[in-house]
Specification:
It contains 29 helices and no strands. The protein has 561 residues and is mostly helical. Helix 1 packs parallel to helix 3. The longest helix is centred in the N-terminal third of the chain and has 18 residues. It is elongated, with a radius of gyration of 32 Å.
Length: 561
């Protein structure tokens, strides 16, 4: 009874329950004096598998050390397999080295015939799986080498099986190399067609992995390649599952070579027909509709809004309840069609349903981002600012996972700069200050040079007496920030930034700015390197010369020269 329960806990990864049961067995053995209650190899092996399933490699390793102490070289292979799985799934940077050490030790034991354990493809598949989890080209190449070695073995027990192929496909997919993943899949299909390999090696997960890899690839032909692999499913007498359809829909939705609405709808209608014909095996789910709505958000078709609402109603009709991701994508549809009021309406419906107990309707950072962009595109900087402030408060309260990033702050900033209002520059600068405060200690969230340049140019455009002073102060803030993070080129002032400050100073018509303008021009003259050469513009430099010539500066002739 103990063995059956422990094995169940082990395979389901319920480490706490498995550990407690082993302790109970130890207590019974001590209290009764009956050694039959003492944990055996079978029990401790199940405990290792439980630790492996829960991702606790240290406790799995500790249990193995106990087994080696208690049972010496007689530790069963199942326990070693469990420990290998624990390391494989740990994502620990040491995992590959640890696994190679164990496999070498096991192989040495076999070769010396001191401990004839059966090392099979299962052992090597676990190592293959670990390579796949590394997510690097180097690890995928190691997985490929191991695959070739297994293919060359005479022992049929070490030949690649369905898990080997799956791990190799995943390794290349996780490394961001969908073409290599597809190549492995097509080689397998060709060998099955020629009768060299058994058709049972071909699993639906292989197709799904490759299609999803193409869907995530930022390559011009990604959608075509995903569609080609999807077609291969039927060619191999397989049925595409909902996961395969969803991955293809996302590949088509992200295709920048054409308006995605029509090709996505075509595949979606095909999916609906197959669902009605074949049953729930391919029933659309929330991820399906999310892909369809995403395509509509990028479409220029005039009927996109009507179609989006129709799809949401269709979801409800087939008992697929929209979640926060679907509603957020629907918000993006309306945002890009400049319908911020509808975006806000959808958001408040999400909040209402979440507060009513629907946890899946909890807004995410992407939801707040959609609101921010909606009001920015809708040219309402006050509302955009209000949403960002609300978002920051929600992040501080732990309601969403992150604060706005530079791109969202940039959307608000640009809304102010486009507004044409007299205080646009000041309002935009206050947004920029909030971004700098929010991104403190987070280099990846720092403002972009375009944000500083935009505000500085707005001051130059304002042409007020104090605009030059304000532009120069902001410019100095940018330079100080750039000095703090010298490796971030996107933060460095460029020729556009310098010219904006100079223009703002010249338009202030304050004689006291002469030294400041001279200093900035001198700095510019000393700038060298590819970073500055790409910003050299004869047209922009000519505008600077014209502005200096038209100024009241006493040394303007010398400055121009």
């Amino acid at each position: 009874a103990f063995s059956a329960v422990l094995k169940a806990y082990g395979r389901s990864g319920q480490a706490d329950k498995a550990q407690e049961l082993v302790k109970e067995m130890e207590r019974l053995a001590e209290d009764t004096g009956d050694s039959s209650f003492a944990p055996t190899q079978v029990h401790l092996s199940a405990l290792i598998w439980a630790f492996a399933g829960s991702g606790d490699v240290e406790k799995a390793q500790s249990t193995m050390l106990r087994m080696q102490k208690d049972f010496g070289s007689e530790v069963e292979m199942d326990a070693w397999e469990g420990l290998l799985v624990a390391w494989s799934e740990s994502r620990d940077p040491r995992s590959i080295d640890k696994m190679l050490e164990m496999i070498d030790w096991l192989q040495t034991s076999v070769d010396s015939k001191q401990d004839p354990k059966a090392i099979t493809s299962s052992t090597y598949n676990t190592l293959m799986s670990a390579y796949g989890r590394q997510g690097t080209v180097e690890s995928a190449e190691e997985a490929e080498k191991l695959f070739k070695w297994m293919s060359e073995q005479n022992d049929v027990g070490n030949k690649p099986d369905k898990d080997t192929y799956k791990s190799l496909v995943i390794a290349w997919a996780n490394a961001g190399k969908p073409a290599r993943a597809e190549s492995v899949l097509r080689v397998l299909c060709d060998k099955i067609i020629r009768g060299e390999l058994d058709a049972t090696l071909l699993q639906p997960h292989l197709f799904n992995t490759v299609i999803a890899s193409w869907a995530n690839a930022k390559q011009p032909d990604a959608a075509l390649r995903a569609a080609s692999v999807f077609k291969l499913i039927r060619q191999m007498n397989q049925r595409p599952a909902v996961v395969a359809y969803n991955s293809l829909l996302w590949a088509l939705a992200r295709d920048t070579n054409q308006d995605p609405a029509s090709p996505v709808d075509q595949v979606f209608q095909q999916m609906l027909k197959e669902w009605k014909r074949s049953g729930d095996f391919v029933k659309p789910n929330s991820r399906t509709y999310n892909a369809v709505l995403h395509a509509l958000s990028l479409s220029k078709q005039p009927e996109a809004l009507d179609l989006a609402e129709r799809y949401v109603e269709q979801m409800k009709a087939i008992n697929v309840e929209p979640d926060a991701y679907v509603y957020t994508t629907l918000m993006n549809v309306y945002s890009k069609k400049q319908k911020p009021d509808r975006v806000e309406q959808i958001f408040h419906e999400m909040i209402h349903r979440f507060k009513a107990g629907e946890k899946k309707m909890q807004p995410t950072s992407h939801t707040y981002s959609a609101r921010t962009w909606a009001w920015s595109i809708g040219n309402n900087p006050e509302k955009a600012t209000s949403v960002v402030n609300e978002w920051i408060a929600a992040a501080n309260d732990g309601f969403v996972d992150r604060k706005p990033l530079s791109r969202e702050f940039g959307a608000v900033l640009q809304a102010w700069l486009r507004s044409g209002r007299p205080d646009a520059a000041e309002q935009a600068e206050s947004v920029l200050e909030e971004l700098m405060k929010s991104s403190s200690g987070h280099p990846n969230s720092l403002p972009h040079v375009a944000s500083f340049t935009g505000v500085i140019s707005a001051y130059a455009k304002a042409g007020s007496q104090k605009a030059g002073t304000k532009a120069l102060r902001l410019f100095k803030t940018q330079k100080k920030l750039a000095e703090t993070y010298p490796g971030i080129d996107s933060l460095q002032p460029n020729l556009l930034t310098y010219s904006g400050v100079i223009m703002a100073l010249l338009k202030s018509r304050d004689p006291a700015v002469e030294d400041q303008v001279a200093g900035l021009l001198e700095e510019l003259a000393l700038k060298e390197g590819s970073f500055w050469r790409k910003f050299r513009s004869s047209e922009l430099l000519e505008k600077l010369r014209t502005a200096v010539n038209a100024s009241t500066l006493l040394s303007k002739t010398a400055l121009v020269n």
